[in-house]
Structure formats: C-alpha cells, structure tokens
Design a protein that fits this description.
The complex is a heterodimer of chains A (252) and B (163).
Chain A lengths: L2 H24 L8 H29 L5 H6 L10 H4 L5 H22 L5 H29 L3 H14 L3 H4 L6 H6 L10 H14 L22 H9 L1 H5 L6
Chain B lengths: L5 H8 L12 H4 L2 E7 L2 E6 L8 H15 L4 E6 L12 H10 L1 E2 L8 H4 L16 E5 L7 E6 L5 E5 L3
Parallel strand pairs in B: 2-3, 4-7
Antiparallel strand pairs in B: 1-2, 5-6, 6-7
Classes of the chains: A mainly alpha (252), B alpha/beta (163).
Bound molecules: zinc ion.
Chain lengths: 252, 163
C-alpha cells in the first residue's frame, strides 16, 4: 500500500464510523421517547453525518479517481466499510442508544482533540469543528447514561444489560493498522493508544455515577479494520443504500 | 470579464439572509469568509457553523443566484474548515438582532469550556429580560440552537448555542 492509499483508508475509518453511528441515531426520528429527545438524536445524527460528508469529500480528493462522497457512502459493500463495530449495533432501547453514544462520544472527544493537531490541514480543520460538537454530544449522552443507570430498578437493569452487551466492542475502537503508524510518525494520524487510558478513566467515571459495573471478563470482538463486521451492518447498508442501488446515479 | 471589485461583490453577498434565521445575514453570522476574483470566476469561501448544518447548501445556492443576477456567470463556492467557526464572530449588532427576533444570543465566551458544556448561569429571556430561566433541552429546532424556558413570563425560547 502506498501512502496515498493508507491515508485514504485512514479517512474512511473515521468517516464510516460517523456515518454508521449517525444512521443508527437517525433511526430514532419518529420513534423517540419524547419530542425533545427526538430532536436531540436527529441533531446529533446530522452533526455526525455532516462530519462523514466532509471526510468523504476529502477522501475522494486523496483517492483522485473521480469517485464522489455518495459513491463512497452508498456504493461500497459491507466488507469495504471500516466503521467501529460499536457504531453498527442495532439501536436497542433508548438507554442502549444513549450508552453506546456515550462510549463513542467520549472516544470522539479525545480522538478529535488529538487529530486537531494533525499536520494535515484538512483533517485538523474538520477535527477542530467536530471536537466542539462531540463535547456537546458527550454532555447529552453522559447525562442520560447517569439518569437511566441510576434510575429505577428496571432502567438500571436494562442499562447494565446494555453495557454487558456493548463492552466487548470497545477494544475495536482503538484498533489500528500497522500501516497507520507511518501516518502517525509523520504527524498526520492519531495513535489511539495515546488516549486509551484517558478514555477508560472518563468512561469509568460516568459509569460509576450511573451505578453501572464494567464487565471484567468480556470477550473482546474486533475485525472492523479488516472489514469483518457483525451481522448487523449488512442489514443497515441494505436499507441505507437501497435508493442508490435502485436508481443508480440519483442526486438530491 | 468581471467588472466588479471584490468589495462590491462582498456588498452584494452581505445582504443574503441565513435561511434558518432570516433576521441575520451570512456576513453577520461569519459564514461568509473570503471573496476572490480568479480570471473570469468569482470564488467564494464559506465556512459551516455545524458539520451537519443543512443550511450550507441553501446558502451556497443563494450566493450563486445573487452573483448570476449581477451578471457574474462563473461562481465557485468552496466550504473551508479553517479557521473554525465560532459564535465569537457574531457582531454585537447581530446579537441584538437575534434577541429582538426572540432568540437568546450566545455568550461571548465560547473559548470558555464551561460555556460549551452549558454551565451558563444567567441566560436572559429575550422576551422579558428575566434571568430566571431554565434549560429544557440541549437541542432545539436547528443544529445551532438549544431550547429554554423563562420562569418569569413562562414563554419558551431558543438559545443560540455557544461554540
Ligand atoms: Zn421571559
């Protein structure tokens, strides 16, 4: 792989994760527990999909093969997506979605804060904007995690079940390709291991306030960097891409 | 041939309203960044307020339309990401326009983390001026707003989020 391809794949990793998570959140539109939360999910989804859009636009420039943002989002298949496994999990109940969001938002805040210092001006610019947005998202998802975790017996149990379900995908958040280390060395990419402890500390604090217990013997599932996903991504893509597959070349 | 100067073009563009908050213009908002004349093309740089702001497409179309109507055929609108948009760019005049429109303007402290995280103590109601107000939802009708209510006059109001 040459440097250009490495960078292209690196950008896809970030963009895909935001697109898929944004899509999952957007599924709450029309199904939220209350109007304000529906707006919150839709607004957060918009930010995430907007970030993905900017990143895909940059990826098409880096690739230089004349593909568009839409081609990348709508015409790749499951094995060509590099999103975090965490992002593709079905939305579950509202608490499940908020807990997953908190885990991802906490990652995004730290990740973007590091990417802001990238020597690549486009990436640092996108990251600086996304960083502010992620902080705002994190505040929202943490407050729901706390409220529902430390809520009723029923909500607590559901949140604990959600955490037990989701925790095994958290190693995958930090996975990196060997080739990405070259990008790290040139100051373009972020070494995810540099903020892993900070992430764990931050997430643990929220979970502690939520009276939730991190599972200690979870089997850690990985594979998203090789395009190996859980069964759920295929279904998500089938729905998200159906219009573009049915009407090739369709434009808004 | 472009017969207008950069300043004249900026003046033309400075009246374009924000599609979602029509009382302020894209210049007030700081979305309009740079104008350049390159050969027979006018290049306009705009910067998004939020990554997913759906108004950017509309703004871009409005810019092309205004310039086409002024006889400039080739227009290239580019989205730029740096410097990063901040509510600090809103002028005092723009803040006052927002308030009169019923939207509580952002505080002038976006660099202060407390403001980003919503720990703002005295947000004044744009209707009655009371500071006895409370947050209803961190997210409002558009990406740039949060929802509040006034405990004095009991009216709900939007707050232009501070980032
Ligand atoms: Zn009032």
């Amino acid at each position: 792989m040459n440097k250009q391809e490495t960078l292209f794949n690196y950008i896809l990793r970030i963009a895909d994760s935001q697109l898929i998570l944004g899509h999952r959140l957007s599924e709450w539109t029309g199904h939220g527990p209350m109007l304000e939360e529906e707006l919150a999910s839709a607004n957060t989804a918009l930010d995430l999909i907007g970030q993905a859009n900017s990143l895909y636009a940059y990826a098409t420039q880096v690739e230089g093969k004349g593909r568009t943002e839409d081609d990348l989002a709508y015409l790749r298949s499951e094995r060509e997506f590099f999103n975090h496994l965490l992002s593709e999990q079905p939305r579950g109940d509202f608490g499940f979605s908020m807990l997953r969001q908190m885990l991802c938002d906490a990652f995004d805040v730290l990740f973007y804060s590091a990417l802001m210092k990238s020597s690549d001006n486009t990436l640092s610019g996108i990251a600086a904007k996304a960083y502010k947005e992620s902080q705002y998202h994190l505040r929202h998802s943490s407050s729901w995690t706390e409220r529902l975790g430390d809520g009723t017996e029923e909500s607590h149990q559901r949140m604990q079940n959600s955490l037990n379900e989701l925790w095994r995908f958290t190693d995958d958040l930090f996975a990196m390709r060997a080739a990405d280390l070259e990008l790290v060395n040139t100051g373009i990419a972020v070494d995810t291991s540099s903020f892993r402890e900070a992430w764990f500390k931050q997430v643990s604090e929220v979970l502690e306030r939520a009276t939730l217990t991190i599972p200690t013997h979870a089997f850690m599932q990985k594979g998203s960097l090789e395009g190996r996903h859980t069964e759920h991504l295929g279904y998500l893509l089938a729905e998200m891409q159906s219009l573009h597959r049915a009407i090739p070349g369709v434009k808004w | 041939m472009i017969t207008k100067t950069v300043e004249e073009i900026k003046t033309l563009l400075s009246v374009i309203p924000d599609p979602e908050i029509p009382v302020i213009t894209i210049r007030d908002l700081g979305v309009l960044r740079e104008v350049r004349i390159v050969g027979d093309t006018v290049e306009v740089d705009i910067t998004p307020t939020y990554s997913g702001c759906p108004a950017m497409k509309a703004i871009s179309q409005d810019i092309v339309k205004v310039l086409n109507e002024a006889g400039i055929e080739r227009v290239n609108v580019k989205e730029i990401y740096q410097p990063v948009w901040t509510t600090d760019w809103l002028s005092d005049e723009a803040r006052e326009k927002l308030r009169l429109y019923g939207i509580a303007p952002p505080e002038k402290t976006s660099s202060d983390k407390n403001a980003i995280l919503g720990k703002v103590k005295h947000l004044a109601c744009p209707h009655c001026g009371s500071i006895d107000t409370e947050l209803v939802s961190q997210f409002g009708s558009t990406a740039c707003k949060a929802l509040y209510r006034c405990l004095s006059c009991l009216e709900p109001f939007d707050h232009f989020k501070c980032i």
